[in-house]
Structure formats: structure tokens, C-alpha cells
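Question: does this match?
>
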Amino acid sequence: GKDKIIFVTKEDHETPSSAELVADDPDDPYEEQGLILPNGDINWNCPCLGGMASGPCGEQFKSAFSCFHYSTEEIKGSDCVDQFRAMQECMQKYPDLYPQEDENEEKEKSSKDLEASPVEAAVAKEEKGSS
């Protein structure tokens, strides 16, 4: 593969490193390919995934995303509900890594809806009473 494993001894650590950084391999098949590789497979190394494929919920993400990508259902991905649910449940265990941005907005919206409901009910009663 592209990685090289080097074992070091205590003596190796006592001298300055002579390691050389190797420039990016221009022949790397995953470099600059985008999300979908030429053969139709998903490029899990694509920076566009923002590391989702390698985080603590990486396996759940890969399962859900693969299911959606390869779905042949009339409504694409409709057969992937269980995988997406598993991914969401995993992400909820790591709120620092996967912030739930919409959660506060939804709570505010639902509390505003609750506040409006009694007013709407009172208006509806008044309209019925005036006819």
C-alpha cells in the first residue's frame, strides 16, 4: 500500500531523525477523484466527506451512505431508513463531534407553536360565537 511501517529502537530515538517527507504521489488513484470514483465506487478518502467515514460513527455513516448510493428504489434511499437511524443514534452519543444544530431551532419553533395554539383556539371560538 501507500503506507510504510518502520520499527525504531531506543538508539534510533537518541539521534536526530533523518526521515524525509515524500511529496504527494501523483499516481495516487484516490487523489483528486471526487466523491465517486470512475468505476462508480464511493471514494471514502474524499475530503468532501469531512472525515465522516473515519469518525466514531464511520461504519454507520458508510453503511447508510452506501445504501443510499446503491439504492435502486423508486424513492432513492427509501430502503435505507434503518441504516440512517443507526447513524443518527450513533451521532447522538457524540454531541461534541456531531452537533445537532437544528435541535434548538426546533425546540424554539415548537414552543412558539404551543404559545400560538391557545390564541388560535380563542380566535376560532370567537369566530364561531359571532356567526
Summary: The helical segments are 10-14, 58-70, 81-92, 101-130. The radius of gyration is 26 Å.
